[in-house]
Amino acid sequence: MNTSQIRSFLTVAQTLSYVRAAELLYTTQPVISYQIKALETELGVQLFSRTRRSVELTPAGVYFYQQMEPLLLQLETIVQTVQSMNAQTPKLLNLLVRRLADYGKLTQIIKNYSESWPLVHVNILTQENRGSRQLLVTEEVQMAFCYQYEVETDPKLKFLPLMESQYYVLVSKTHPLAAYKYLTFDDLKDQKLILANTELHKNPRLISSAELKEKKILVQTIYTSFDSMLIAVQSGIGFTILPCSRSKKFSGLIKIPLKDVKPMPLGLAWYAPRATPEIEGLINLAQKLNQEQPPTVI
């Protein structure tokens, strides 16, 4: 078992597509297939259920993904930190990035930052089950591209909004709600809500437990990971609610706007007591871009 196999597995698990995984990893589909097959042979289990039209995680694959994603993130952070100790390498700024977002404005900020701060390497890490607030406070990351609700309860965490994301209801193509062009909470009465035990579903701005009960929305299951939740929604047993960009697509799912929830601010967060010149430099560039491109619903 090696890191290339693990990275190939995690990317296929996140995209549910060998072709898309190959694109993201700058390789070919046969290479991805070989890596996954070698990993399954070594483990002695099937990680994916594959047909000509779809790719799905098996129960063993779901468990393996849940365990390996944070371990690979930790390994990459360790490697990057060790490398940054060499005086000849740039300083390291770990930036945690929330899934499902539109990254256009963020990538422009990183590009401008790399030109202005050539001796600082922005190390981009993907979101895990532990939320942005915890990782910022423990200094495992220096900055986070996240939703405002994740950090607004801690006065030491500062937040700069860059854009806003609308909330959507996600359902399978065969679900009764799939016929709607838009939805309200009243439309979700007696429907089964599927959640994941991540900070994404600890958002007080969305809907409270009391409101769920009042509107007769049934909480079906709380899964331990985001991907497990999406697989359950694909099965057609219920729906979930996510903030995400208009352009984001989900394999096998219909995305329907939820009209009675305000868009959620998305931007950069950092721990103010530990703001270094490198962090302040990135924030200054983000504020400058905000003046040119004010935050809007993406």
Question: Any overview of this molecule?
Answer:
Helix 1 (3-15) crosses helix 2, helix 1 (3-15) crosses helix 3 (29-43) and helix 1 (3-15) crosses helix 4. The chain starts with a helix and ends in a 6-residue tail after the last helix. 34% of the residues are buried. Strand 7, helix 7 and strand 8 form a beta-alpha-beta unit. The model has no long low-confidence stretch (mean pLDDT 87). The protein is an alpha/beta fold. The strands form three sheets. Strands 3, 4, 5, 6, 9, 10 and 11 form a seven-stranded mixed beta sheet that branches. The chain has a two-stranded antiparallel ribbon with strand order 1-2. The chain is globular, with a radius of gyration of 20 Å. It is built from nine helices and eleven strands. The chain has helices at 3-15, 18-24, 29-43, 59-84, 104-116, 132-137, 209-214, 226-234, 277-292, and strands spanning 48-50, 55-57, 91-97, 120-126, 143-147, 157-172, 192-196, 218-223, 240-244, 253-257, 264-271.
